[in-house]
Each structure stands twice: as C-alpha cells, then as structure tokens.
Amino acid sequence: MAESDRIxxxxxxxxxxxxxxxxxxxxxARALRGEAALQAPPSLRPSPALLAPTERRRAPDTVAxxxxxxxxxxxxAGIEPSSLPSVFACSYGDLAISDYMAATLAENPQLxxxxxxxxxxxxxxxxxxxxxxxxxxxxxxxxxxxGATFGAGLLxxxxxxxxxxxxxxxxAYDSEARGPLATVLDSRGLLAAALVLAPADDPCGGVSLGxxxxxxxxxxxxxxxxxxxxxxxxMSGCATLFEALALDAPASVSLxxxxxxxxxxxxQPVT
Length: 271
What we know:
Helix 1 (25-32) packs across helix 9 (239-247) and helix 3 (61-77) packs across helix 6 (124-133). The protein has a single domain (9-205), classed as 3-Layer(aba) Sandwich (Peroxisomal Thiolase, Chain A, domain 1). 32% of the residues lie in helices and 23% in strands. The protein is built from 9 helices and 8 strands. A hairpin with a 2-residue loop joins strand 7 (251-258) and strand 8. The chain is globular. It has helices at residues 25-32, 53-58, 61-77, 95-107, 114-118, 124-133, 149-164, 225-228, 239-247, and strands spanning 8-18, 86-90, 139-143, 168-174, 191-199, 207-215, 251-258, 261-269. It has an 8-stranded mixed β-sheet, sandwiched between helices. The protein is α+β, with helices and mostly antiparallel strands.
C-alpha cells in the first residue's frame, strides 16, 4: 500500500457549532439528523463569555463566532483551553471590516478607527483567543482558501495531531460579505464550528476519524435541509462532516482541498 493510501486516524474529543438558526451543537445535531426544525433566524450573534463586556461589544462578528465555538469545544472535550495548540480557519477574514477599511481609506483615511484596524488582520480571532485563555501554545491562522478553507483547516489540524501526538483545537468560521465585496465574494449569514481532535489512542474520544488524501474534486453534498440552509455562508463546507458526526453511525465524506485533490474522511463511532 502506498503511503498516500494509508488511512490515518484521530479521535474527536470535543464538538461545537453555531449559526443563528442552529445556536449550539445539541440543537444543531438534531436538526442535521432531520429531527428538529430550523429555528427562525433571530437578529443576534454569539456572546462569548471569554470576553469582558466592553470587549464583547467591540469585537467583530468573526471574533465572537470563533471564541464562542472554541470555548464550547474545549468544554465538550474536558480540556483546559490554555493547553491546546490551535488552527483558526476563515475563508475571507472579516468582510464587514474589510469593507469599512476600504471605504474609509477611499473617502477619508484619517478617520480609520484604530480598533477596527487591529481587528482587520486575519489572525485577530486567534489573537483574542490566546490572550483571553492565557494560551502560550502555537496557533495557525489560515485564510484565503475560498470554499476549500474548512478542508484545508481540518487537514492542518489532522497533520498536527499526527506529527505531535497531542490534541489540537480546530476553529472554522465566516461572516457576511458587505458592500462591493458582496458582489465578488459570496458569503451570507454567520457560521462557526469547532473540533478538538486527539491522537487515535486517546481514551476519551467518542468518535474515530479516519482520513487520507484522494484524487478528485467532487465534495460530498449536504443531505439534510438544515445543512443545505447553511450553503450561503463561505464556511458551509463544514456541513457534511458535521452531518456525519451528528448521525452517530459510520459515514464517509469528501471535502474539497483544491482542483483534483480532496480530503476523504471516515466517521466511526467508538463504543
């Protein structure tokens, strides 16, 4: 068997999910299994307890999304957040701030807000996380992979688990495109998901993930109405894997990485 054909395995120790219609993994899992109807989308965003009230109000949507699911995934895993290296994946960064920055620079550069400026960098959420949790472990901030960003972030986290033989936090999130950017970058609504992945011999993981790279570009389509409803968001590539995790049954999904290359994942509950 060629090395590229060998299936590597990790355990899933923690899971988190958030969108306005699926605000939390417990509800999202039922909806992704077809057992619960979608909630009407309220006009809200998550309110991560990790941030102080003033910071919570100032933080952009991407930071609020990322910190909410990161905290919940660590709680689900029963692991102290400060002990985990992490991978933060966002397809386009904070598009609302990018739109604000471009418009302000074009109209009156002297009015650029310092707070919005420091939130405009693509690793802002990872920075807030490391400061808020006191985490000195390494983080990777991954962006600009378009619809393949979730697959790329998951692959990065899987490789880190394989190489370092320790748990890794994966956080994936995207917000809504605003202004002229919305005409060229398609992302609507808010969506975030997180996993704590651990080595295959971790005794606490309830789900085993087998993975390998494969040829092809046909990503697994979403099956449930809940997953299809997420397709307007740039991070919707995560939906099929979280559908499989929600089923609590063996399943296989393919995630796009680049033309003619995909990440093949096998989900196997551990009894």
